[in-house]
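Quiz preparation item.
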């Protein structure tokens, strides 16, 4: 009896020790049945369309050797004890590793999803900063125990971009979410899912957690429910349609004094308290939709970033975390992407130089009344007049031969030629009694009406359309001219574009023209005013801005060839958590037509389109006609005087002749 009691006691002790050892191992890794891990990870991955899965655990030893090491611990504890009592513990020691390997095998081989099983040390050393090379990853924390939390907080959350991967962590119901995420910043745009089991059921409640900003309270939103039979019931809307409230958070906004699309509204202390213009309207719409407030600051320029990295202007403010985003027109360039990020494009336009329209339209057009028809048309008209005149003479001669004469009509060729020419000048002719001559008159009148109408239309168009000759139309022509200066807004994308351009012509324009300018314009209006003020000055600007500011200057701007297309957007900090929600609402503004309406009302009613108006004819356009009238009048008076003198001489001769006869 005592022997049996001792054996039973030993067996119970072994089972107790085995349970303690197994509890320690299982507690450190898996806290759900395998089918829960398999089904929930699969459904989360499907919902977010992740390309791969990384299972993170806190065990520093390789999973494959955990069972063997656990068996070594058991052997040390059970020295001298019958191996039959320890065989069950050995099998239990392999259970944890088998379950993890089975989970990886199920995801990778059965579901054909690339899956890796890593501890935090391995992830930090082998993957590290190169995790951005993994496209759309799903990182899974298998549990929420203290080791897992410490490793996650200290080894991962301090350097990783939390919003890049999708996160899933399995929580024990005894732990608190706020405690787990203490000292962890989960950005607003993160996809961080927490799975918690519902008591006495196989269902899991999925909660998404995030923070509006650093050191702000942790926000918890119900994401969905999962159960083994029906799978995941997730939200029907996208991330930023269900997470669209900043709960009154203050965003720091900078803009430029760039009339008329962005102007500052200041208080009595000269502090910026608002923005007018196109971007001011967008900011107000965003404020209303996002439930946030704004603090405004003024940026001196858009900003550039020299090789030493000391960025200036609005870009420098974003890089130095002085503002959250810049509400002004930013040209999206590759160089700027190294320091800031951009919103979705607001509109597209083109960048080109603008010069003042030449004054060649004021010269007298001596050929103005001949130019509407080409020389060949004038020859055909002259030939037609001669043929019609000759036809009338021939008909009159033919009918005179058959004793049918037309005494009322002129008979000489020169006289008929004069009348036919008069018909082409909209004058009448003496009516003929001969039907063939009348037919010739009808053809002459119809032809003259058509030609006169075409000539009048061409003449009006020629006189009212101002023509001018551009000295050049390309940047290469601007460079070869050598008499023009060229300017661009300092610390702008166009300045950086020309400065770093690999094109030989652009590079020479920057070196020979722009770099020599002592003072570059600080705004579009200043640059366009310089174009009008100076006779030979070219200014590089956006098509939209040039069209909008044309009404503010007293000269006509003429565009040269396009330098480059430009996509305009607003700028934010790199990896800004608010980029997604701002982009979402900009797209909603575009889809609803509000953005297009703002473009039409704030940038101008018609972007760059010419407005229709009556064009008056200048005095220089009718100078040839005035000279013709003056010369014709002078010749007429001269002929009249000659005739009058001749007639007086003739009368005097007649008087003398009569007196001599008497």
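Solution:
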């Amino acid at each position: 009896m005592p022997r049996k009691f001792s054996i039973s006691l030993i067996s119970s002790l072994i089972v107790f020790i085995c349970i303690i050892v197994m509890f320690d191992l299982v507690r450190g890794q898996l806290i759900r049945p395998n089918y829960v891990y398999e089904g929930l990870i699969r459904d989360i991955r499907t919902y977010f369309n992740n390309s791969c899965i990384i299972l993170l655990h806190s065990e520093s030893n390789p999973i494959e050797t955990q069972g063997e090491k656990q068996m070594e611990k058991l052997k040390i504890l059970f020295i001298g004890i019958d191996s039959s009592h320890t065989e069950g513990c050995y099998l239990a020691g392999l259970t944890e590793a088998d379950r993890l390997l089975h989970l990886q095998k199920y995801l990778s081989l059965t579901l054909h999803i690339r899956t890796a099983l890593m501890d935090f040390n391995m992830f930090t050393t082998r993957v590290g900063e190169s995790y951005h090379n993994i496209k759309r990853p799903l990182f899974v924390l298998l549990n929420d125990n203290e080791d897992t939390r410490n490793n996650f907080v200290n080894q991962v959350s301090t350097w990783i971009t939390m919003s890049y991967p999708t996160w899933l962590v399995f929580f024990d119901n005894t732990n608190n979410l706020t405690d787990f995420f203490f000292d962890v910043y989960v950005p607003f745009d993160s996809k961080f899912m927490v799975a918690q089991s519902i008591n006495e059921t196989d269902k899991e409640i999925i909660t998404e957690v995030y923070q509006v900003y650093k050191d702000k309270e942790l926000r918890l939103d119900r994401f969905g429910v999962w159960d083994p039979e029906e799978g995941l019931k997730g939200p029907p809307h996208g991330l930023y349609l269900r997470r669209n409230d900043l709960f009154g958070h203050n965003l720091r906004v900078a803009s430029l004094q760039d009339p008329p699309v962005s102007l500052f509204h200041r208080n009595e202390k000269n502090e910026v308290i608002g923005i007018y213009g196109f971007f001011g309207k967008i900011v107000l719409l965003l404020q209303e939709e996002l439930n946030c407030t704004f603090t405004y600051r003024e940026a001196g320029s858009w900003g550039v970033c020299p090789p030493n990295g000391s960025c200036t202007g609005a870009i420098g403010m974003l890089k130095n975390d002085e503002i959250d985003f810049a509400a002004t027109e930013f040209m999206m360039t590759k160089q700027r992407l190294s320091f800031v990020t951009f919103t979705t494009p607001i509109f597209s336009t083109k960048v080109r130089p603008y010069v003042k329209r030449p004054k060649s339209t004021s010269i007298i057009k001596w050929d103005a009344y001949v130019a509407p028809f080409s020389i060949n048309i004038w020859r055909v008209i002259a030939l037609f007049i001669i043929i019609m005149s000759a036809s009338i003479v021939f008909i009159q001669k033919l009918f005179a031969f058959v004793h049918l004469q037309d005494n009322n009509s002129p008979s000489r060729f020169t006289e008929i030629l004069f009348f036919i020419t008069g018909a082409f000048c909209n004058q009448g002719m003496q009516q003929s009694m001969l039907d063939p001559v009348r037919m010739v008159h009808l053809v002459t009148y119809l032809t003259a009406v058509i030609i006169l109408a075409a000539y009048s239309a061409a003449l009006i168009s020629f006189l009212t359309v101002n023509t001018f000759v551009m000295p050049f139309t390309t940047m290469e022509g601007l460079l070869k001219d050598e008499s023009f200066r060229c300017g661009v807004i300092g610390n702008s994308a166009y300045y950086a574009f020309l400065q770093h351009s690999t094109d030989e012509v652009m590079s020479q324009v920057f070196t020979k023209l722009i770099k020599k300018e002592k003072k570059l314009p600080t705004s579009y209006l200043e640059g366009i005013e310089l174009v009008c003020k100076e006779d030979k000055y070219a200014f590089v600007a956006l098509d939209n801005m040039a069209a909008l500011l044309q009404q503010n200057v007293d000269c006509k701007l003429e565009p040269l060839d396009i330098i480059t297309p430009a996509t305009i957007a607003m700028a934010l900090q790199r990896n800004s958590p608010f980029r997604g929600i701002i982009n979402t609402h900009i797209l909603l503004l575009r889809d609803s037509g509000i953005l297009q309406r703002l473009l039409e009302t704030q940038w101008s009613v018609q972007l760059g389109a010419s407005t229709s108006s009556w064009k008056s004819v200048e005095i220089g356009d009718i100078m040839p006609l005035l000279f013709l009238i003056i010369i014709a009048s002078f010749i007429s008076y001269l002929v009249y005087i000659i005739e009058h003198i001749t007639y007086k001489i003739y009368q005097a001769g007649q008087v003398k002749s009569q007196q001599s006869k008497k």
